[in-house]
Amino acid sequence: MTDHLGYEENAPSNNNTGNARNGSYQKKIKEEFGNLDITILRDRDSSFEPVILPKGQSRFTGFDDKIIALYAQGMTTRDIQAHLDKMSGVDISPTLVSQVTKAVQEEIVLWMKSGRSSILMLSALRCGRIIRSSTKPFIWRLV
Asked: Residue spans with biased composition (Polar residues) (predicted)?
């Protein structure tokens, strides 16, 4: 909101802009692992567009991906909670972070058990070569 209005909260220069803060309202976000209540700020002109969760949207897409990315970097659930609160102002519980990371870990285990994690290597290539006007097969060994 500070960036949108161009002045800090409670700053004396707010009368010059013609727009001012006008309180906030609660919004419930539907997530894969439950609902989350957040506070959305508003201005008098209704020209403020929330960046993280646009107007009329109740599902926060990509939120789980951010949690997973932070967890993959080695952050603890409480570190992730504090980071998201500081960066986006979304206050989530460490339990929600744990639920998201646990679901991903379960998917990884299922993927590993499915056999799709096998890697096949090419170890030989069958070709033909010409020796004195005749073609004879031979095998190149690749290492």
From this structure: 11-24
- Distance (Å, whole) CA 103 – CA 35: 17
How far from each other are the two terminal CA atoms of the chain, in whole angstroms? Answer: 60
Q: What is the pLDDT of residue 120?
A: 56
| pLDDT cut 90: percent of the chain above it | 0
Nearest Cα to Cα of residue 66 among 97, 93, 102, 34: 97
Residue 68, helix vs strand vs coil? helix
Residues with Cβ < 8 Å from 64, sequence gap 6 or more?
31, 32, 100
Q: What is the pLDDT of residue 15?
A: 59
Task: Confirm whether pTM is higher than 0.85.
Answer: no
Q: Is 125 exposed, middle or buried (0-12, 13-18, 19+ CB in 10 A)?
A: exposed
Neighbours of 38 (CB within 10 A): 19
Q: Are 38 and 31 in contact (CB under 8 A)?
A: no
CA distance 5 to 18: 9
